[in-house]
Amino acid sequence: MRSASEASAVETAAEPAIRVEHVSVTYRTSIEKNPTLKTTLMRLGRGERLVSEIKALRDVSFEVPHGTVLGIVGANGAGKSTLMRTIAGILPPTEGRVEVHGRVSTLLALGVGFNRNLSGRENVILGGLAAGLDRDHLEEKYDEIVEFAELEEFMDLPMRAYSSGMYGRLAFSVAVHMDPDILLIDEALSVGDARFRRKSFAKMRELCEQARTILIVSHALGSIRELCDQAVWMHKGTMKLWDAPDAVIDAYTEFLGVREAVIDKEDV
Amino acid sequence: MSTTSTEQSSGAAAAQGASRGRRRAVDDIFGERHVYEPHRVGLPPLGRYARMVWRRRAFALELSRTNMRAQHLNTVFGQLWLLLNPVLLGMVYFLLVDLLRQHSRGFAFFAHLLAGLFLYQIVQTSATDGARSVVKGGRLILNTAFPRTLLPIASVITAFKRFLPTLLVYAPIHLIAGLPVDWQLVYLIPVVALMVIFASGLAMLLSAAQVYFRDLSSFLPYVLRIWLYVSPVLYYYDEVPSKYKPILDVNPLTPILASWSDVLDKGHAPRPGFLLLGVAWAAVAFAAGFLFFVSREREFAVRI
Ligand SMILES: Nc1ncnc2c1ncn2[C@@H]1O[C@H](COP(=O)(O)OP(=O)(O)OP(=O)(O)O)[C@@H](O)[C@H]1O
Ligand SMILES: [Mg+2]
Questions:
Q1: Which pLDDT tens digit goes with each residue over B101-158?
Q2: Beta bridge partners of A88
Q3: Beta bridge partners of A242
Q4: Do A62 and B63 touch (CB under 8 A)?
Q5: Which of B42, B46, B117 shows the shortest CA–CA distance to B84?
Q6: Is the CB of A93 within 6 Å of ligand 1?
Q7: What percent of chain A has pLDDT over 90?
């Protein structure tokens, strides 16, 4: 396996930024919300096992060349977030192999790694260090991040005092300022008020113009159409279609049975 | 290797990427390469893992600092409280033991008691703080890829930083009690090191276990209390009647705490037997905690 990929590396001059080979991800979760020793012992006593399996990705393979802006669309539960987490190295694949070239910055649906009891400043610093940025670089970027999010006077407050829009703005700002080679964005394009949305859309366009690899998951199909140069339609853990954004979105909306105009109105 | 459909599609994407002139120079992009594969045996390559932990050490330090700030431990009163707490506890235990023993204990025993409590607090803080560390890391774990061992390690760093000032409190008491002061005190350094290594293993073990059993941390205070009682802190190791010795001897903390007492109370090097056992227990605890944690950590993201 290793030698095969090395051989192909010699053949093709440039490696893709992301190579996903036959990846499957299966979640195995216990059904109880809060597993405790007590309930486990009681369950063992009765001889039950409460584990359910969910196949979130099934044998997905693709390559994303450097500099591609890839849009990912699909219904709820199609496996889009799972795919992003696998590429980010957060979830190990159950089967298959993921190879990523470059530093990844993630902006996943749940916000960056924010702890609500810590201040915005502490969260930004901690999140950056965890993501592998070095201290000096982070200090340098900090002001830029805060300025873009327009949250100067809130940075020393604990984040539980933030409104959800403010939360999203900070998350967006952190992710786009981390100078990633590869940016993964999961449903974070439409945060904040209309003005911030316009601003973040402009920022996204700026990033897309640069030679970055960007993966965007969004239900805002208009944004995908405008920003991306490739698109994927995920369906029940598989890749149903990979094509130009227009073609994918047309097929997807037709499948959903909604008129796109309705969706587009809610876009950026 | 890859299917035809993906080859076509990526080929098309590549063509388009190139046509837009987006492709960067190959070299400056290949700085970082990550491969994610299933680990059937459950363990990632340990050498690479250790390097990754080392590279992100700034994160563990910052997390510890932030947590201490959140508990107001960076203020004067916060620090004072931290010192006062074990001193008061030490007084309570001293009175209790003194009472039971009908005034047979001198000030030197108070010094022994305090020193033992201070050292024991490394394990206590690492365990209680560490157990919650991973579960508390919630969103960070869901959204960032980093070696999770840094979370319990940050708790151990906190425990160590809380331990250091207690030495300042202990020093005058040691002098007043007229306990020996000589070069043998350098043995304290390896003894503390053993305690920290042991505590790290324990913190990793507990923090991983807490993901599966969320009520673990509510049992913990009782366990830690009992553990203290069966450790040579509230008494000297040598005065324990031989019929209770076996209990003490299976306690992993006994060799470390007894070594601590050998150096501080008697002023001689720790007995070699204790030192060897202490090294063995610390190594076992660290290896067990680390291996258990690392074999499980890839699952944390879906369990939290
Ligand atoms: N932590 C988890 N534990 C167990 N199952 C999960 C977990 N996260 C997701 N799943 C399951 O995996 C499947 C794919 O989920 P995923 O979050 O990837 O979907 P998605 O495409 O991002 O959906 P959405 O559009 O709603 O964000 C779903 O069936 C979901 O139930
Ligand atoms: Mg999602």
A1: 776 778 888 899 999 999 999 999 999 999 999 988 877 887 788 899 999 999 999 9
A2: none
A3: A232
A4: no
A5: B117
A6: no
A7: 9
User: Token pair of A234, please?
Assistant: 């995920």
Question: Does the complex come out with an ipTM higher than 0.90?
Answer: no
Each residue of A34-84: pLDDT tens digit?
Answer: 677 777 777 666 655 666 788 889 999 999 988 889 999 998 889 998 898
Contacts of A114 in chain B (CB under 8 A): 139-140
pLDDT in tens, B144-178: 888 999 999 999 999 999 999 899 989 999 999 88
Q: Are strands A238-243 and A104-107 parallel, antiparallel or unpaired?
A: unpaired
With a cut of 60, say whether residue B14 has pLDDT above it.
Answer: no
Provide the 10 A C-beta neighbour count for residue B51.
12
Touching check for A59 and chain B: CB below 8 Å? no
Residue-wise pLDDT for B214-255, tens only, equals 888 888 999 999 999 999 998 889 888 888 888 888 999 999
Fold of domain A4-102+181-262: Rossmann fold (3.40.50)
For residue B167, the distance in angstroms to the closest alpha carbon of chain A comes to 30
By alpha-carbon position, which residue is closest to atom 24 of ligand 1? A76
Between positions 122 and 141 of B, the ones with CB within 8 A of A are 136-141
Out of B10, B34, B138, closest to residue A100 by CB: B34
**Sequence ranges of the domains in chain A:** 4-102+181-262, 116-176
- What would the two tokens of residue B175 be? 């002098």
Q: What is the mean pLDDT of residues B48-73?
A: 87
Distance CA B237, CA B241 (A): 9
A80 in ligand 1 pocket by Cβ < 6 Å? yes
| DSSP, res B287 | H
pTM of structure: 0.82
Domain ranges of chain B: 1-33, 39-303
What's the B20 CA to ligand 2 centre distance in angstroms?
Answer: 30
Instruction: For chain A, list the strands marked E by DSSP.
Output: 18-30, 51-64, 69-74, 95-101, 104-107, 182-186, 213-217, 230-235, 238-243
Residues 6+ apart with CB under 8 A from A103: A132, A179, A180, A181, A182, B31, B32
Rounded to whole angstroms, the Cα distance separating A184 from A199 reads 18
Query: What counts of helices (H) and strands (E) characterise chain B?
Result: 13, 1
How many of the other CB atoms lie within 10 Å of CB of A127? Answer: 26
Report the Cα B161 to chain-centroid distance in Å.
11
Confidence of residue A200 (pLDDT cuts 50, 70, 90): confident
Which residue among A26, A27, A86 is best mutated to probe the pocket of ligand 1, counting the most ligand atoms within 8 A of its Cβ? A27
The rounded distance, in Å, linking the Cα atoms of A177 and B35 is 24
Interface of B with A in 8-37 (CB under 8 A): 9-10, 12-14, 16-17, 20, 22-24, 26, 29-37
